[in-house]
Amino acid sequence: MKDREYIQEDEIDLRELFKTIWEKKLFVILFTSIVTFSAIIFAYNKTPIYEVKSYIELGFIDNKIIEEPAILEQKLKVVFGIDNNMMNNNLKEGIITSISQTKNIKNFLEIKTEAISNEIAIAKSREILEYTQKLYEPKIEQYKTLVNNDISNIENEINF
Question: Per-residue pLDDT tens for 65-98?
Fold first, then answer.
C-alpha cells in the first residue's frame, strides 16, 4: 500500500500544470516580453568587436632561422605591452590581444588583434609586421653584403 501511494505522489498532473500556467499567463507574457525587449535593446546598442588573426613567418638566412620564435614572441610582447593590460586597451585604435607560437610549426607566430572595425584591426596587425621587418633589416642587409662580397670574390677568381 505504501508503494502505491509513493508512486501516485511522484506523478505529474499535466492538466493541473497547464491550468496553473494559464492562470499566470499575464505574468508569463509580461516577463517574457520584458526580457526579450531588454535583449533587443542590448544587442542593438552593443558595439561590434572585430578580431583579426594573422601569422608571421620567420625567415631563414643560410639555412638558419633569423630569430627563435620564442625570443621574438617575448620581444613583441614587451614592445607592444601584451601582458600589460593598462598600456593597451583602446578598441578605437585597436589592441593586440595575443602573440603566440603556432603549434607544430617552428617558424610561425600567431597574432590576434581586436578593434571596432576590421580595417583598424588589420592596421594593428600590419604595425606588428612592419616592426618585425624593420627589426631584422640590418641582419638581412648584412647577409646581402656578405653574399655580394662572396660573389665579387668569385668573379675576381674567375676573371683571374
Answer: 888 888 888 988 888 888 776 555 677 788 888 8
Q: Dump pLDDT digits (tens) for 26-61.
A: 999 999 999 999 999 999 998 888 999 999 988 888
Residue 56 and residue 111 in contact, taking contact as beta carbons nearer than 8 Å: yes
